[in-house]
Recover the amino acids of this structure.
């Protein structure tokens, strides 16, 4: 399994200038490659291959006076920028052909120097190195100071240097690690995700939604107001932009840290975890969009999925159209639609249900059934052939006409309300 480990880095002013130069060169190569392919398509020429494109926008471009400054940065950075363009095109083509699942992928777009996030990638060919003095050595940049919050489990295969909107720098290492299975346990859990309670477990435990964005709304509102009063293009406006970005980054970091701790605890305590496959994109278009995005359901379920795969746990998603809320977890009866204001309801079988706990129990049962079906077990009885006395066609075909009480059925100009079957059918043995 490949995992990413992110660490904060602190480049010096000279190293920041070198990184900014590398960011710009990678962006120019990406845009030159995209422009060359667009021009070839407009001219009716053949699609430029990856090798021909690399020769044109990197090797030959370095020999021209307009692009000779591309030689000031590592060649691996330029090659990886072009590799990102090729990957974007492949994703676009596979999406058009239907081979790629999920939402449609748009064609690649030009990168801007005004983008809040800039990144460059170094592979093993660049010969980057983690030194004994805990510094990260990058070609044509220097030795960067890194704040190591934990050790790398294996030598990294690549490193990506990122500058975010808040002006912070990070080093993201890709590491090939082996699975670390946890001791098996007997507990299994179904999770119902919500807004009032972030997660409700099938064992009755409710985890309150922290609502990090809502709690920081007052400070964010004040910073946004200060930003709106600054003159466009001024240095004070640039400083205000960084302040707003830092406030949002603090919210995102706090939410991510909380979700990591919660997902790790759930995976450690349960052998199987089942969640409902929510359509977050669709819910993000409703009046609850702000609360939905503040909850971060997609990132949380993603953490559960990869941690379960790494630690030898079972993880599955239940179909989003499964009526987990309306179904009684005791008798299986499916009731009519219920408003969001209904938090508890009574079933005709005599059971009283908490809305969220009942949904979590149904998610657990549905996940177990689907998981058993994947292993080849029969969840439903197998179909059997009907007895001959039931499958035979009789001369009196009128008995096949069905009517609902109170609703007349017209047949041959007559008003038929009651259908009498011949003795041959009424004497058929019961199944």
């Amino acid at each position: 399994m490949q995992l990413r480990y992110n660490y904060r880095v602190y480049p010096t002013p000279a190293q920041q200038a070198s990184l900014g130069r590398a960011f710009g060169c990678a962006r120019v190569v990406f845009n030159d490659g995209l422009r060359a392919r667009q021009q070839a398509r407009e001219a009716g020429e053949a699609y430029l291959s990856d090798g021909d494109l690399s020769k044109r926008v990197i090797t030959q471009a370095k020999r021209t006076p307009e692009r000779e400054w591309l030689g000031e940065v590592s060649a691996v950075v330029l090659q990886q920028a072009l590799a990102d363009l090729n990957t974007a095109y492949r994703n676009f083509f596979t999406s058009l052909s239907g081979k790629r699942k999920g939402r449609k992928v748009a064609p690649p777009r030009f990168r801007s120097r005004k983008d809040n996030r800039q990144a460059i990638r170094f592979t093993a060919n660049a010969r980057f190195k983690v030194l004994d003095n805990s510094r990260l050595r990058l070609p044509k940049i220097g030795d960067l100071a890194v704040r190591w919050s934990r050790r790398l489990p294996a030598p990294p295969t690549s490193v990506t240097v990122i500058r975010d909107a808040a002006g912070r720098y990070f080093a993201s290492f890709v590491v090939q690690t082996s699975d670390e299975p946890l001791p098996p346990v007997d507990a299994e859990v179904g999770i119902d995700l919500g807004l009032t309670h972030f997660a409700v477990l099938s064992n009755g435990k409710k985890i309150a939604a922290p609502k990090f964005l809502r709690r920081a709304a007052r400070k964010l509102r004040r910073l946004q107001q200060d930003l709106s009063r600054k003159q466009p293009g001024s240095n004070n406006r640039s400083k205000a932009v960084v302040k707003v970005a830092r406030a949002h980054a603090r919210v995102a970091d706090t939410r991510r840290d909380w979700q990591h701790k919660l997902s790790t605890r759930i995976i450690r305590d349960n052998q199987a975890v089942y969640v409902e496959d929510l359509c977050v994109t669709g819910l993000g278009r409703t009046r609850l969009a702000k609360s939905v995005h503040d909850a971060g359901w997609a990132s949380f379920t993603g953490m559960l999925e990869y941690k379960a795969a790494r630690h030898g746990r079972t993880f599955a998603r239940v179909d989003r159209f499964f009526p987990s809320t309306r179904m009684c977890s005791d008798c299986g009866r499916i009731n009519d639609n219920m408003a969001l204001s209904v938090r508890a309801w009574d079933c005709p079988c005599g059971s009283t249900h908490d809305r969220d706990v009942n949904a979590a129990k149904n998610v657990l049962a549905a996940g177990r059934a689907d998981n058993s079906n994947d292993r080849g077990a029969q969840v439903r009885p197998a179909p059997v052939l009907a007895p001959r006395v039931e499958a035979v066609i009789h001369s009196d075909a009128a008995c096949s006409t069905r009517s609902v009480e109170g609703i007349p059925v017209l047949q041959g100009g007559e008003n038929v309300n009651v259908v009498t079957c011949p003795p041959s059918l009424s004497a058929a043995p019961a199944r």
Residues 375-431 have pLDDT under 50 and may be disordered. DSSP finds twelve helices and 16 strands in the chain. The radius of gyration is 31 Å.
